[in-house]
Design goal:
By secondary structure, this protein is mostly helical. Helices cover about 65% and strands about 0% of the residues.
Length: about 110
């Protein structure tokens, strides 16, 4: 088990960490703002695992799974940001590099 996976199991519990691996990306997209807020809270509590566990205990199970997946698979951030840009611009673009995104306001 990797160090990251060990930490996720320690914080979220084995059941949540395992369930998060099977969670579809759409589940995170639906809660992206909430997940990002909780991620900030966990980051602020770095080095305080008991405080981090209390933050996690206070969230809904589906939110905890989404956050666990988000942390466990860092490439999801780029994919979610890219998908949100696709929805906002109604264009099919790759998440990165952002320089490939056309600015419609410039014609």
């Amino acid at each position: 088990m990797s160090r990251l996976n060990s930490e996720l199991v320690s914080l979220f519990g084995r059941e949540t960490a395992q369930a998060a691996k099977r969670l579809p990306i759409g589940a995170i997209e639906q809660q992206a703002e909430q997940v990002a807020d909780y991620a900030k809270q966990l980051k602020q509590a770095t080095g305080k695992p008991e405080q981090q566990r209390n933050i996690i205990k206070g969230m809904a199970k589906d939110t905890a799974m989404a956050l666990c997946k988000w942390i466990g698979e860092p490439s999801l951030f780029a994919e979610i940001v890219g998908n949100q840009l696709n929805k906002d611009t109604a264009e099919i673009v790759k998440p990165f590099p952002f320089t490939n995104i056309k600015d419609k306001s410039r014609g």
